[in-house]
Amino acid sequence: MSPPTAATEARPELVTRDAQAPRGPAWVARVRSADHKTVALIYIAASLSLLVMALVQFTLMRVQLIVPDSTIIEPEIFARILSASGVTFAVLFAVPLALGVIGYIVPLQIGARGVALPRLNQLSAWLYIAGAVVLYVSFVYTPGQGGVLGLPPLSSTAFNPDKGVDNWVIGVLLSTAGFVCFAINLIATMRNMRAPGLAWRRMPLFSWAAAVIGWVILVVGPALIAALAMLTIDRHFDGVFFDSAEGGAPLLYEHLVYVFMSGVYAIVVLFAAGVISEILPTMARKPIFSHRAAAGSLVAIGVLTPLAWMQNMYSAPIDLGFTIGTMLVALALMVPIGILVCVWIATLWGGAIRMRTPLFYAAAAFSTIVFGLTGELAYSVIPVGWQLANTTMSQGDTLYVLIGGAVLGGFGALHYWLPKMTGRALGEGIANFALIGMLVGLHMYVLCMGFAGLEGQPVDIFKYPGDTGLSTLNLIASIGAFVSVASALVELGNVAHGYRNGRLVGHDPWGGSTLEWFALSPPPPHNFDAVPDVRSAEPLLDIRDSVRRSTDGVSAPVS
Amino acid sequence: MRRALAPAVIAFVAITSPASALRLSPESPHSPNTSDMETAYWVMIVIAIVLAVVINLGLVAALLRFRERRGRPPARVTAGRGAITRIGVALGVAAVAIFVFGVIQTDSARTVAENGPNGLTAAVSRTAQVGVKDVPSLAEVAAEQETLSQEPEGGSPVFIPKEGDPLEISAIAQQWLWRFEYPGGVPGQRTFSYGTLVVPVDTAVVLNITSTDVIHSWWVPALTGQVQAVPGTVSRTWFRADEEGTYTGQGTVFNGTSFPAMTIHVNVVDSATYQDYVEGLNDDLREAQGIVEAESAEAEAAGGGGAEGDTP
Q1: What angle do CA B259, B262, B265 make, to 5 degrees?
Q2: Chain centroid to CA A65: how far?
């Protein structure tokens, strides 16, 4: 049990302390580096930049909807903003932010000195960035206006001959291909490079979530790549995959794109669940209530959510048997999500909770996701879905989950783990202030748009008539949206400031129980000089205990 | 400041929740199928709100009660055997109960009801499956159009479905307009209108919905749920309007730049007015046909060999 003897020998070939410093400017070294930590930081930085893009687009769309029959933005311009905003938020921000945090933390959590396929990992980041660049290059000429999902026939050359749609399609395809590369490396790393003794039953829950996310991407990513490849063939090589006049099936694209979008939804939920499952026990100084149940729930969510993709297609012409089956799968999600919720509350119960910013963000993410998921529970019942799918009401619940998971969960993860990445803590006062702003704005927005959805406001419209009572609701919703966006920008500024100028903290500022806190902050290129033997799900507690015992009451140096 | 927070939150909730509850009701249903949807909505929204509130209260209670205090170490408890299983079983039972409820409501909402006393026909009860219709081959479509466009022999000039049959109307979407095709019509033509659908009150109407270009969607909240109009496929839905009046709706699937302009108006009138309306449409058609025939005859007489347009 004592760390000095239990630790494995340092593998000299991997120790990089004395390695030559790379020559040339720092950014060249960063671009060329295949170190998982550098790659992950590129992921995080790029995804946060794209969050700014998504926030700007969201603001523009809300400005348009403040007044009825608005003519502030031209319909074509609105359609272009709309088409870019959906993928910017979901594909170019939410997923890569999750992958960035995973790419940094998971190798550390499993006690690996690197990743299995570092060059593939590096390629994945650059494919993702290439995809974002390809999509945004179209803003120089004509951006695509094929809608949020790019559904054919609307996105076919007959209805959208502009090159911008091709940028959209190729951009999303490249990014998704990057995510698939990332997932391959992640799964290979987690299967092969765990510290001695780190069995799956002792795997930290964030790593469990990461493993499930890897498999989800591996399943849903190729579905979208196939759909986009078929769309490209249709657009430029006389394909008829989605041309009903030639026997093609437009619904096929809808199925595939919803398989992917459900996967994105699952990724965001799993990422947030992993973050919450790490932060709550650490901050409450208590072990997770049931590691087994939580891990099992994560797996179940990863399996069931993409399987319920047709939940978004109750109104499409699909045989009843399939939609009924989908409803069953969607309702079955109640079980793992409910168990997870009980485990989290039971983890807090009886703890000694430190009221610090990571906890606030984790609790806010938890609360917001619960609002969203209980709403989704209602829409997963077919007759309710028939009325309210694709209205601003169900969109509000989707936003609860995506914003709660990716934005609040993401900032929570950054507050918790940025000290590991930089050795510096992020500012807490301004972050708490921004969190309140984000929550108030988000609830204002979702609540008002929920009422508007009940009065029949569909998603994606650029105007609504003035005589329907929607104007007050949209006005308040827009104000809420602006409050939320401004707070998110403040918090982004806080992250940017804290990354370079934050207060210096030690290697283990939270007293964490998982292996990443065993490494230095920031970790050296080889992560660990010595990898400890793992004997439980909380290896650092064991190490602290044994240090305390061996030093006979003298305070432990590790914590 | 922290102490002031809790009363402030409670006051905010107390003020906003009654106002919210009033706004929570959906558009009032005017058809048996939307009544079923409304029932499902109320049951599910109450379950959702109760769950969300209970979980959030639990979270807040745990956070407030177990704040770090001097001299109170954290308990190191974890789940005993069976605790999680019990929760899982309870949740599973709840999920199955909701599923059964959902299936019952779905089936009920899909079953085409019989016509009411003021309906177009006094019909006997009949259940029909509504949902996907197989993609009709072109020959089938042509044959169907042929039969539908036969002028009823000696009977009413307006097509009236046989006893017990619902009135079947086609709704065909295109960017950014709906075309409605009524059964019957003058030979060689189908009776149609654009933009506004006129239907008789108290009559079961089955809509065959399709599209000629991109994917659209049909949604008139008071009468039907959402149905996608997919090119090459016929989706079906139905309603039986219980009150005369105009009902509006809008698609929910983005279909191009003029998406919000593509509104739907359903005008529910009494049976006599409906028959007059359709007959009016037929008269217009006949008139138009007459003009075209006269023109082409003229063109033929002039020997121009009218290349444009076929003679009907």
Answers
A1: 150
A2: 28
The SS3 of residue A426 is coil
Residue ranges of domains in chain A: 31-550
Structure tokens at A377: 């529970």
Helix axes A409-422, A357-379, angle to 10 degrees: 150
- DSSP strand pairing (B216-218 vs B205-211): unpaired
**C-alpha B63: how far from chain center:** 45
Instruction: Label residue B188 by pLDDT band (50, 70, 90).
Output: low
> How confident is the model over A361-369, as a mean pLDDT?
97
Residue B251 with chain A: CB contacts under 8 Å: 458
Q: How many CA atoms lie within 13 A of A277 on its CB side?
A: 32
Contacts of B131 in chain A (CB under 8 A): 317, 319-320
Collect all residues of chain A within an 8 Å Cβ-Cβ radius of residue B91.
334-335, 338-339
Phi, psi of B268 (to 5 degrees): -100, 120
**Within 13 Å, how many C-alpha atoms sit on residue A9's CB side?**
3
Taking only the tens place, the pLDDT of each residue in A103-116 is 999 999 999 999 99
Rg (chain A; Cα; Å)? 24
Task: Using CA coordinates, name the residue in chain B closest to A462.
Answer: B260
| pLDDT for B116 | 80
Mutate which: A381, A451, A462, vs B, most B CBs within 10 A: A381
Is A319 in contact with B74 (Cβ distance < 8 A)?
no
- Rounded Cα–Cα distance for residues A372 and A399 (Å): 7
* pLDDT tens sequence across A258-271: 999 999 999 999 99
> Could you give the ipTM of this predicted complex?
0.91
- List CB contacts (< 8 A) between A377 and chain B: 44, 47-48, 51, 98
Give the integer Cα–Cα distance in Å for A173 and A53: 19
- Residue A481 CA, distance from chain mean position: 20
Chain A residues with CB-CB distance to B227 below 8 A: 315, 317
The total number of residues shown for chain B amounts to 312
Distance CA A315, CA B130 (A): 12
Q: For residue A413, is pLDDT > 90?
A: yes
The answer to whether B99 contacts A327, with C-beta atoms less than 8 Å apart, is yes
What predicted TM-score, i.e. pTM, was given to this entire model? 0.90
The residue ranges of DSSP E strands in chain B, in sequence order, are: 132-133, 167-174, 177-182, 191-194, 196-200, 205-211, 216-218, 227-229, 234-239, 245-250, 263-269
Place domain A31-550 in its CATH homologous superfamily: Cytochrome c oxidase-like, subunit I domain (1.20.210.10)
Domains of chain B: 2-66+82-110 (no CATH), 132-300 (2.60.40.420)
| CB-nearest partner of A381 from B24, B102, B234 | B102
Contact B132 A318 (CB under 8 A): yes
pLDDT tens by residue, A438-493: 999 999 999 999 999 998 899 999 999 887 778 889 999 999 999 999 999 999 99
Determine whether the interchain pair A355/B45 forms a contact, defined as Cβ–Cβ distance below 8 Å. no
Amino acid code (one letter) for A278: E
User: Model confidence over A49-83: pLDDT tens digits?
Assistant: 999 999 999 999 999 999 998 888 999 999 999 99
**How far is Cα A205 from Cα A347, in angstroms, rounded to an integer?**
13
| Candidates B22, B39, B214, B227, partner chain A, best to mutate (most A CBs within 10 A) | B214
